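pasting for the record
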Amino acid sequence: MTTLRDITRRATIVTTALIVGLTASYAPSQAAEGEARTTITDHPGAPGTMLRQFEDLTGRPVGDLDKVLAVDTGGRTLTGDQLAALAAGKEVDGVKVVGTIPGSRDVLGTTMADLADGAYDGSGDSGTATSLLFSSSTPDGREWCLTMCVASGKTIWQCLLSRRTGDLIFTLDLAGSTTIGGTKAAFEKANGVAVDGPYTVDTLVGDGEPSADEIKMLLDGKDIESMRRVATVDGPDPEWALADIAEKSGVVYAKTKGHLFTLNLPILGKILVFCVSQDGGKTWKCSAKQWGGF
């Protein structure tokens, strides 16, 4: 098991434990399409055992535990997008999050029943949750999984691990005084790689902050409805502050301003970084992921 640590990245691996009825104790199997399944009888240390079994099944680390969500799905089967939304702290219609438990080594050593009430308190009560979502991330933050789980019974848990890669977005909060060069350096540090550029910076304006889905679209090189591109500067000065880019690009005023930077990662290709501000450029929320548009 990978050493536990605090993860600040928003990229996650979500492993879900399902109670599906009285079956045998641990009985691993490989599911279709690269998914891994295992059935485990609840015992002290069951969460850690579950994750270690998935590492054995896949031959790859499942990462460090970030948090556990106890969820009442009302008997519904959730989609991967719904699970991702829950893991990101968003609401899903018809689903109740009973509680959220921060990840730790102690949590891995308790029982599933202890976590099912949404709190790690050693009570061992079965709680009200029908599912447990174990959210973890690999050390490099570039791998994550989504799993759906349904509960039935008291001691038998059937667990499904499904891996995915890509679409990983790093988000940093930066001050308006941060320069273009400083923004680039911050993402280089977050990703652990050096990039070239930026070669261009587009300025976008709108009446409100774009949604998470729209930010994904921008990072995929697509246009969005809530913001429009009004200026492009080639070879922007690395010493320009984020707060000054719009004015230097000829854009005087807008309720919401955004800047889309084009950089290059040797071998892998172009990277886009999007920064948006709603307070006149005092603070910026900047997001980036590897972009395969070219």
